[in-house]
Amino acid sequence: MISIARLPLVAALEPAEDMPMTISVLLPRTIATDTVIAVEYAITPLGRTLGPLFQALDSWTQDHVAEVESARRHYDGLAD
User: Fold this and answer.
1) Which has more confidence, 36 or 62?
2) How many domains, the chain?
3) For position 31, what pLDDT does the model report?
4) What are phi and psi of 40, to 5 degrees?
5) Can you give the residue range of the structural domain that contains 60?
6) Who has greater pLDDT, 22 or 63?
7) What would the pLDDT profile of 40-78 be if each residue is shown by its tens digit?
8) Same domain, 14 and 28
9) Are the CB atoms for 27 and 42 separated by under 8 Å?
10) Is the full-model pTM beyond 0.85?
């Protein structure tokens, strides 16, 4: 399982001006205004169809993590 920091996740899920339908179709957003404002995300059945794609991406990432890290170090000027 890949962990995602809360703030980047929230920023990534925040509907962009030009993509509100995409976000709402895959990850509907509910804003709770009880006592403390909270935002809850859920995945729709359509969004769940992306599961195999994300599983394949996760598998690829695990298979190539050393290469990705090496490329990242090279890009950052910290080549092996």
Assistant:
1) 62
2) 2
3) 73
4) -120, 140
5) 50-80
6) 63
7) 888 899 999 999 999 999 999 899 999 988 888 888 887
8) yes
9) yes
10) no
Tokens standing for 13? 């899920």
CB 29 within 8 A of CB 39: yes
Q: What are phi and psi of 73, to 5 degrees?
A: -60, -45
Whether residues 29 and 65 share a domain: the answer is no
CA 72 to chain centre: 20
Q: What is the DSSP string of 12-44?
A: HHSPPTT-HHHHHHHS-EEEE-SSS-EEEE---
One-letter identity of residue 53: L
> Are 35 and 5 found together in one domain?
yes
Give the residues across from 39 on adjacent strands. 31
The verdict on 37 and 56 lying in the same domain is: no
What is the total residue count of the chain?
80
Residue 14's Cα: distance from chain center in Å? 11
